[in-house]
Amino acid sequence: MNRFILTIALVTLPGSASAQDVLIRNATVHTATAQGTLQNADVLVRHGRIAAIGHGLNGAGATVVDAAGKPLTPALFAGINDIGVEEVSGESTTVDSHIGLAGGKDMSVRPEFDVTTAYNPESVLIPVARVEGFGWTMVSANPGSGGSLIGGQGGAFRFDGSLDPIGGRVLFVTLGGDSANLTGGSRAGEWMILDQLIDEARGRIPADSKFALLTPAGRVAMAKYFGGGGRVAVTIQRASDIRRLLRWAKQRHVRIALVGASEGWEVASEIAAAKVPVFVDALVDLPADFDQIGATMQNAARLRAAGVDVGFYLSSDASHYARKLRQLAGNAVANGMRWDDALAGLTRVPAQAFGLENEVGSIAVGRRADLALWTGDPLDVANTASQLWLDGRAVPMVSRQSELRDRYLHRDESPLPPAYSR
User: Fold this and answer.
1) CA pair distance 160, 364, nearest whole angstrom
2) Helices then strands, each counted (H, E), the chain
3) Distance (Å, rounded) from C-alpha 319 to C-alpha 299?
4) Under 8 Å between Cβ of 343 and 73
5) CATH of the domain at 270
6) Where in the numbering of this chain does the Amidohydrolase-related domain appear (predicted)?
7) pLDDT per position as a tens digit, 282-311
8) Is the same domain home to 65 and 82?
9) Whether pLDDT at 373 is above 80
10) What is the pLDDT of residues 140-159, one digit of tens each?
11) Which CATH number do you get for residue 383?
12) How far apart are CA 313 and CA 328, in angstroms?
């Protein structure tokens, strides 16, 4: 164990930001692929990519880390949130996740709004997530902003300091009781507005019509998501709404993902048949509103048993508490979901849902070396991430929270006042 601690300390020293060569020996490797879990296996990283997986690998020139049989997983997915575009939710100048009403209009539908251009890779929330083993996230444009059920476009970011997202954009939409008040107070108005937006994007409604809702740029943006284009992430809860959305998406050739789906288990076979991924909050088990009367903590297990690809997200405080996603996955296991499927919900499933399976979400030869080493079962919150690697580069396991903890735990040993760390 001392050798393990020593090698970790060496690779986490500040230094070059370039990719590193690393050989992780004797790990329980949860690949999140068809290979499943490999016992006492080695993972060799060359130039930031996984070069080999096996036993007794030759790591000449690479930094060696003895995992001592501990679990090694892909870097985890931090959910659908506002990390990087929100610092303090109560301070509007630090929140860039939505666009407000413009021009005095009753509703401002701006699908061209791209929240990724506001992303801050130096957000203090990023190290907080990284020290818990999370390496990437989906940054969302909040639907409901601007008085519209269309939030705008978001994208996936790795927590490696990059300014730009990876992969394509995702359009964020809210349907059901949460957005009915944005379309005249009736759910029927939501489908009316969505169909009108499609007609506008396809030129069936003139741009100069007094009924038009989209700008010229908005028409171009909307057109990208219809007829089999980019992914549309729809926050929706009620079973009947989900059934109607599945039908609507099939008729209009829209690639959707469901977010929330508290009553998804009631229509699980239909979701599976449509091959639609679902992101659930596995701790939702009470009817917070009339759209969630059928909520149950067995939702994830029942969906997966029906053949649905299930990922996880937090329905509240998603940015500041991304670390709780491990708890959500663990609770899904406690309520009937297979362990491997729960880990996939934090790794492979979101990567596939957002078209990033060749970049993140699995341990396979040729993939980015985005890895997390754990003290024990990663779905048990009693365990922690010992080390996170991004592109094979060991990330310092330090956050603002850990710095504050250390300052005040050892303040009597410092000659400086408590307000100073150095």
Assistant:
1) 20
2) 12, 16
3) 23
4) yes
5) 3.20.20.140
6) 285-383
7) 999 988 889 999 999 999 999 999 999 999
8) no
9) yes
10) 998 655 568 899 999 999 99
11) 2.30.40.10
12) 8
